[in-house]
Amino acid sequence: MKLLTILPIISFLTTFCSAAKFASCSGVYGPRYSNKINPFINVTFQFEPTHKDINYTTLIFHYTDIKNSNIPQFMDFENPDDNSLKICDEEAIQNRECRELGKFIVNYRESNSRIYNEVLNFNERSFLEYPVMETGLYCVYIQTLQDVSGGDYSLDVQFQQPYGYLSFNDVLKFNTLASIQLPIVTLLLLIISGRFIYAKFFKDSEISLIQRAIFHYTYLIYLKTFVKFLRLWWLNSVDAQVSKTAAVFSLLLIVLVDAFDSITWGLILIISQGFGTLYDKSTFPKAFSKKIILFMAINFFMRVVAVSNLGSNISVLNEAGSINPSETIIGLLKIFGFCWVVKSFYKTAKEISMYFDLTTSKLFKKSGYIICFVPILMNLLTIILAIVHTLRKYADTTIDPIEFQESSWADSVFTKILILPNLSNFVSIILLLYIWDNVDSQKVDEENVAEFGAPSVGQVVLNKNNDDE
């Protein structure tokens, strides 16, 4: 999947050979209309001692004609035994392979890719900012022309997206937010709010607690979506890398999204129990309240830690692939949350069916299944469609990995497939509204509870009046 999920890369390389070699690749979106942040590739070379005269060749290659490029994979380039990317010398000039000493030998005549190929001097220019003019996969190759074994050096390459330092997946999600998610969830929120206001003030009827829970669930999803969209607009309006205030505000928006996500999980767990949703908060077990608060706090803390570890926007990738422990823990935490929800439903299903009418009991269980399983099914559907699409499009097993990445970057079908998990919340809300649309709130919250009484944990307590009837 890392061939499909192209992330911005920062890479540092330390070798024990005489010449330093470095390579890094990333997909970058081209300039977008009305964006104040223009995409670019930032190359920084640091060397100690600073007085030493070091020349280094920098090649920035945009893969648009891979088969004729004569450019190796960056893993092969870092291999000291690989000579597929040569430096221009006197012999190469005599053989008409190149024209200028020190530059990389590249087949210009057969390749229509845009190339930057220059020899730079460390004392004169240790910083390079290369503008990106179109969407595609870019690779940076750097090699020093002198011995660097006597000093300490570092090479830093950053791929600046037009939205700021955002990963490929983030850009896809934010594009979806701007075009699909925010209008849909705003419309749902207006419809639900209008129904509640009409029922409360014009029909003078009570709103059931389960319907309130659905409203709160929708409202939290709206807040998450709105804050994400606000961050996208903010990154398009200001350069968060220049202004400290802008950077702090961007980080605050990320924290708010994580907070809303954690609260949403807590609400899902409350709905899964039935307590506090079908009755009132006084019947909600205090011990279970502490567990939910602890779960929300851990989820929020781990998400914030993951953001700080990633530098908010940048991911590191090497040949073997890197794993962020915070992201792994968050994934395990969500799996635990799903298991907890499922367990809660099966545990309370019998109790609810005993003191509520059959229709309400079934609707409650259906609500739980919708909230719990719709996101799982949407993610499974995404994985299946992505695998099938990838196998059909890239059936040739001999395809070059760089060509595979370049094709994936411009794959509109795959982009649409990745959007599916982001729509699971709206599918859940629509289904919940559909199944609870015609339920009489008086029947759910007053008649049944008044007749049978709110049960204690694990028990059903019937009133004596029930026997007289």
TrEMBL record:
Entry superkingdom: Eukaryota
Coiled-coil region: none
Entry's transmembrane regions: 182-202, 214-234, 246-271, 292-316, 328-346, 367-388, 417-436
Key words, A-Z: Membrane, Signal, Transmembrane, Transmembrane helix
Keyword NADP: no
Cleaved signal peptide residues: 1-19
Start and end residues of each PTM1-like N-terminal domain: 24-160
InterPro entries (alphabetical): PTM1-like_N
Record's keyword annotation contains Amino-acid biosynthesis: no
Pfam family, one: PTM1-like_N
Protein name: PTM1-like N-terminal domain-containing protein
Species per Swiss-Prot/TrEMBL record: Wickerhamomyces anomalus (strain ATCC 58044 / CBS 1984 / NCYC 433 / NRRL Y-366-8) (Yeast)
Origin organism lineage: Eukaryota, Fungi, Dikarya, Ascomycota, Saccharomycotina
